[in-house]
Specification:
Blueprint: H1 2-29, H2 32-39, H3 43-50, H4 73-88, H5 106-130, H6 147-156, H7 162-190, H8 197-221, H9 227-230, H10 234-243, H11 254-273, H12 278-298, H13 304-325, E1 343-351, E2 354-362
Antiparallel strand pairs: 1-2
Amino acid sequence: MRLARSSFAPRATCRGLLAALALVSASLVRPADARAEDADPPAASAGSDAGDAPSIRSKTDPAPTPRERPPDPSAANRAVSDATATVTGAGPEGTKTPRVQLRYNLWIDVPVTVGLAAGILAWGFIKPSLGNRTCTICDGPGTDVNALDDFFRTTFVRQDIGPSATISHVISYGVSPVAGVALAFGVAAADRRANEAPVNALLVLEASVAAVVVKEMITAAIRRERPQVHALEGDAKQKEIDEQSDPLESFPSGHVASIMAITASSAVIATMRGYKLAPVIWIVGSTLAGVVTYLRMAADQHYFTDNLVGAAIGTGVGAAVPLLFHRPVASTPDKVGALPSSRPMLSTMPVQGGHVVNVGWAW
């Protein structure tokens, strides 16, 4: 019996040690919050069986710390979004680029645009009745034009000029205006600023009709025979001059001038607005102008220099109107985009024997 007890005692001791280790391991593996709840049971459950027994926690023990919650990922995402909006300049309206206010006044720009357009239409009805059939740039019957224009005419003119003339009309007075309006809305909408597109379209129309007016003034002052008219001689030429409505309006090209006016004004306004896709307007408009330049020479309606000067007029006037009259409004630290107020400026600077007074005006 002694041997049995002695042999049993080590096994019981080992079992007890293993059980104790298991309990300790379980207590260590359990979260700290669970151990805190076991060590500090609620007051109601503690007093349910023990009556009014005092709590086992001493009054000097520190108060239990509240359970910490993991950070809210949505809050972090909102913080990142706000930081991104601040860096990219997107305001509360969700725009991708900062808004830029241009100078314009509908009470001025609308009447000016309508007046210029009405003047162009009226001039179109009056011009044929004037009977101005004398050329200003005349090379004389049977003589050649300058070498540059002669080279391009010989290279590009077609036997059947009708299709080229028709396609050039469609592109200049159909495709180009539609593309201009579509690009005006498209580049603004790409930056989530489509509400600025109507004003942009008005300013582009104003610049375009101004370019056409300048072109018509130059055409009225400088009369040049169209290539197909100049190629004729004698009675055939005189008959063509009498029958055509515009036989002496070769210089400059109105088709190319109108396309480049739309292109330049749209691109300049988009650039001043800060649209990211502003260069697309230059690419599309210049491509259309190049196609029409070829078609007008293929139709034997304009020389190369006519198209070149027309492109210069359209680009110059189309860019000058928004740059001179619709520049961005200067922003102030307290109110971005506010219209600048005219105000006098007065400053003094002490010099030997007195003061120098500087008077100016800011607007």
